[in-house]
């Protein structure tokens, strides 16, 4: 997202990607916590509503495409599979952060999680 808004320009190296992911996690889990709680509720509802599931699947596919484009704009060579893996890891980490006790998210924790995510796709 930062690249899309011109807030960050490439090239970005491994440490830059870690920083962007950490900042994204922290912002999503704090400033946008309520938004993500609502998304998780909607995701659970989609297990009972096939049309909603199809819509959410389309949104996820669009998010993968958008993220691939953003990685290219930042000079990163992350593969589509790597982007899909990062989104999965980010989503899982965000779920834990958002559904935990409000106010317990900090930059250090987000940094450790982001570093581990990047290590998972680019050891």
Helix content: over 70%
Helix count from the secondary structure assignment: 5
Mean pLDDT figure = 92
What kind of sheet is the major sheet? Answer: none
Shape descriptor reads globular
The CA-CA distance between the termini, in Å, is: 24 Å
Strand content: under 5%
H/E element sequence: HHHHH
Count of discrete structural domains: 1
Unreliable segments of 5+ consecutive residues? none
- The helix/strand class is mainly alpha
> Got a strand count?
0
Radius of gyration: 15 Å
Overall description:
The protein is mostly helical and 123 residues long. The protein has one domain (14-121). 73% of the residues lie in helices and 0% in strands. The chain is built from five helices and no strands. It has helices at 14-30, 33-46, 50-73, 80-99, 107-121. The model has no long low-confidence stretch (mean pLDDT 92).
In short:
The protein is mostly helical. It is built from five helices and no strands.
Keyword list:
about 120 residues, mainly alpha, globular
């Amino acid at each position: 997202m930062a690249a899309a808004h011109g807030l960050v320009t490439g090239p970005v190296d491994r440490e830059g990607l870690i920083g962007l992911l950490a900042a994204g996690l922290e912002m999503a889990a704090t400033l946008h916590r309520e938004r993500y709680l609502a998304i998780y509720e909607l995701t659970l509802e989609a297990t009972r509503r096939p049309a909603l599931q199809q819509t959410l699947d389309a949104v996820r596919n669009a998010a993968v495409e958008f993220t691939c484009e953003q990685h290219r704009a930042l000079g990163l060579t992350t593969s589509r599979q790597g982007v899909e893996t990062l989104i999965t890891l980010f989503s899982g980490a965000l779920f834990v952060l958002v559904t935990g006790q409000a106010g317990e998210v900090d930059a250090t924790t987000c940094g450790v999680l982001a570093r581990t995510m990047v290590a998972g796709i680019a050891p």
